[in-house]
Amino acid sequence: MRNIVQQFSQIIHLPHYYHAFILPFSGSDAAYKQALAFSFSPNFYTLFHLQQNPELCPMNNSLDQLQAAIADQRNALLSHPVYTAINDLPALRLFTETHIYAVWDFMSLLKSLQLELTSVTLPWKPVGNADTRYLINEIVVGEESDVDESGNRISHFELYLQAMQQLEASTGAIEDFLSRLPDIKGMDEYILQSSLPEAVKSFLGFTFRIAATAPAHVKAAVFTFGREDLIPNMFLLILEKLYAEAPEKTSIFKYYIKRHIEVDGDHHSQLGLEMVSRLCGQDEQKWKEATEASHEALVRRYQLWDHIHNSISK
User: Fold this and answer.
1) Which of 55, 127, 260, 282 is most buried when burial is the number of CB atoms within 10 A of its CB?
2) Structural domains present in the chain
3) What is the pLDDT of residues 140-175, one digit of tens each?
4) HSE-up of 98 (CA within 13 Å, CB side)?
5) What pTM was computed for the model?
6) What secondary structure letter does DSSP report for 266?
7) Which of 202, 78, 39, 216 shows the shortest CA–CA distance to 136?
8) Residue 105 · residue 187 · CB < 8 Å
């Protein structure tokens, strides 16, 4: 059994600490398989990092309290009627034509974290905590250069645009909006003067105020609780129905959602939790600010969903 585990670990690049966890279960195949499955789960990832980083353990209660404080708003968002309203291709097209702005500004929020937590200027010098740098850089790699269905490197935003084009949704508005972007200092005014719906302006305005002016722990909280860990099971059953009816129109969007669940809703959400814990530490004020900003981010998303739902229902 030890040789099997070591060989398997080399093939999929498992670190050495998996051996110590899996081998005690080698008495039966069933127990071994169960232990191996758990070793890939977010729970094991979290437990391992807490074991290796005991300084994070005191923050567990603060993290639990934050999640409890936003639970009602998060549950309301996940049960929003917009999900059941997207029951045909025209509705899905309308959804994507607004949701694309959330996909785009998510990337801007992510890059603002990378700018603050890592060194991206010349000459290079180490910035902040190496563990935090690793967390944010790993998320950026996954979001900015994932793979499409054919294995070609692509950002999640570009993948979403491809899905819209296959759906025959209009990409003209988002492309025009991005073609005239100012630098970050002019974003507030640019958003306000744009022809975007008010709900979209409000959503983008909040995101860019956070990205431009908020401290790192607030950005990380909005990213993790308001954006990153938010659509793990997004209308999958309805999407399966739409895919069955028109696979040639929906295959890329279905793949995008699959990748969102696999990457964003699982691995990246765990990285985000650890990043928030490290940045807030044991500072009660930081946890308070992180909680308030996370709640506000969920409220803004709910308002955006209201706008999309109203557009579909007309």
Assistant:
1) 260
2) 1-40 (no CATH), 57-313 (1.20.910.10)
3) 999 999 999 999 999 999 999 999 999 999 999 999
4) 24
5) 0.80
6) I
7) 216
8) no
